[in-house]
Amino acid sequence: MRKLILLIAFITITSCSNNATEMVNSMEGYWNIETVTLPDGTEREFPFSNHMDHFEIEGSMGVKNRVSPTYDGQFVNYGSPVPFTWETVDGKVVLTFKDGEGRHQQTLKKCNESTLVLLHENGTEYIYKAHENAQE
């Protein structure tokens, strides 16, 4: 019986870790902010923005860049890249960003091929949609 319980616990932990890794790896790419919901429930939509976030992931580390598309289909970085790490805490994927001397955390609520949802530690929720390149 004890072996069965240990086996079930191991499978649960491993599958949660794999799901978290898959979800984080799905973040890689270009994302447009679609909606921001503030802690008080106020919602702001962004039907068009010339700026987006680009996430690069390698293992448990990543970098977030602010970019703008150019007319030839390329992207221009602006601002400084913001490095982050990710880990699973109490079954949730937590991203810890370090920007200069500042640090903040965001919880990855959802990520698939079309939607990314991040919850900032201050309660602000960011809903992104995957960038669709018009030249594709």
List how many beta strands DSSP finds.
9
Shape: globular
Assign the structural class, choosing from mainly alpha, mainly beta, alpha/beta, alpha+beta, or little secondary structure. alpha+beta
Q: Helix coverage percent of residues?
A: 10-25%
Instruction: Give Rg in angstroms.
Output: 17 Å
Spatial strand order of the main sheet? 1-3-4-5-6-7-8-9
Oligomer: single chain
The rounded distance between the terminal residues' Cα atoms is 55 Å
Order of helices and strands: HEEEEEEEEE
Largest sheet, described in full?
A: 8 strands, antiparallel, barrel
The tally of helices reads: 1
Strand content: over 45%
Task: Walk me through what this model shows.
It contains one helix and nine strands; from the N terminus they run αβββββββββ. The chain is an alpha+beta fold and 136 residues long. Strands 1-3-4-5-6-7-8-9 form an eight-stranded antiparallel β-barrel. The longest helix has 24 residues. 12% of the residues are buried.
